[in-house]
Design a protein that fits this description.
Length: 382
């Protein structure tokens, strides 16, 4: 909205010509991050007090670590604050004519709605199970199937890249894996649903899920900018100077107009930092499923729309390990009646090994930062 006001309306006035600076994506990226951060800071204290007054407190699993029982009653559903800041900042600073942004917002808000229903069910019924797992997964896959059917069958993506799966460490223009449309829709849906639930499993300690989510959002901001920006560079090829856009220079898929997703990422980055202010150990508020599902769905959607589905495994390595630890634990117990970990997800394993909660949290953040740098390295090592 502000983008259209400043650029399309006020920038035409001679005295306000300086507002043309908002035509640049880089300016709006910075503005979106700051806006989301300020919204979180301004609304946060009032929002937490409202949660307390309505007695919307966290229900702690009985089978969880005993040390977590002291957290019972801490306000939850704080992910609403993340969603509000993210959506408002994005709408204020993005080009509202851009389909990529609306797809990302639609999936994020839809998964947030499922998370809200799950959290509300827990709070209303005073149990930690919420919406039945099969129902929740069914809704998640239905949303993704509908959205990605549109993405991969419409003219939103150009035909030459629409069904192309980008492979890390390879030149996109010399080799990629092309999938049938049905297979790509199923694969993309799995990526989003899997990421959403992996982030949900990671959200077990104060700040553990939001930290990697912030780092991942920053990483995809770079990917979205490179994939969509029209900036050109001069390249000397066999003694001949040629002009290439940044994506072609880095040998990744060029997706026109996807650069606006960088604004969405920036808003997610700012909203995440603002929420971390209240969620850091010891947490004043928990994000709940409304936060973890929406953040995970946002990251998965960004990976699909920027053709970085496989790189997401690197960027979200902590989320992948958390999900795998649960899968392995359940599988091992069903097949051998033996557990691999003291408790799953794996962060609980380290808790029972005697690690202090802040140590686990910070180390998982550091691992995510290293993985993000490695993922960014794939842009050059090809």
């Amino acid at each position: 909205m502000l983008f259209h006001l400043f650029f399309d309306v006020l920038a035409d006035i001679d005295q306000l010509g300086f507002l043309r600076v908002f035509r640049y994506v880089s300016t709006r990226i910075l503005a979106a991050a700051i806006t989301a951060l300020l919204l979180s800071f301004l609304i946060g204290p009032w929002f937490i007090e409202r949660l307390k007054s309505r007695q919307i407190g966290q229900q702690i699993r009985e089978e969880g670590p005993e040390s977590h029982q002291v957290k019972a009653g801490t306000p939850t559903m704080g992910g609403s604050l993340i969603l509000l800041s993210l959506v408002l900042a994005t709408i204020l600073w993005c080009d509202l004519r851009n389909q990529y942004v609306w797809i990302a917002l639609l999936v994020t808000v839809s998964f947030g709605a499922i998370g809200f229903a799950d959290d509300y069910n827990k709070v209303a019924r005073k149990n930690s199970k919420g919406v039945p797992g099969k129902v929740r997964l069914g809704l998640e896959f239905a949303i993704c199937a509908a959205v990605f059917t549109y993405v991969f069958t419409s003219d939103m993506l150009s035909p030459d890249i629409r069904l192309a799966l980008q492979l890390p460490f390879t030149d996109f223009y010399e080799g990629y894996l092309e999938l049938p449309v049905v297979a790509y829709i199923a694969f993309a849906s799995f990526v989003v649903v899997g990421t959403a639930n992996a982030v949900n499993l990671t959200d077990g300690l104060d700040g553990l899920a939001i930290g990697p989510s912030i780092i991942s959002a920053g990483t995809f901001m770079v990917f979205a900018y490179i994939a969509g920006v029209e900036t050109t560079v001069l390249v000397n090829i066999a003694g001949e100077v040629r002009s290439q856009n940044l994506a072609e220079y880095l040998q990744v898929a060029h997706i026109p107009d996807s650069v606006e997703l960088a604004i969405f990422c920036a808003a997610m980055f700012g909203a995440g930092i603002g929420f971390l202010w209240y969620n850091t150990y010891p947490a004043s508020v928990f994000m709940g499923d409304i936060g973890s599902l929406s953040l995970g769905a946002a990251l998965g959607t960004l990976a699909v729309l920027t053709k970085n589905e496989l790189v997401l495994v690197i960027v979200g390595g902590v989320f992948v390990v958390e999900a795998l630890s649960v899968i392995l634990q359940v599988g091992s117990y069903k097949m051998r009646r033996k557990r691999i970990f003291l408790m799953a997800p794996i962060h609980h394993h380290f808790e029972l090994k005697g690690w202090e909660e802040p140590k686990i949290i910070v180390r998982f953040w550091l691992i995510t930062l290293l993985l993000a740098l490695f993922a960014l390295g794939t842009l050059k090592f090809r």
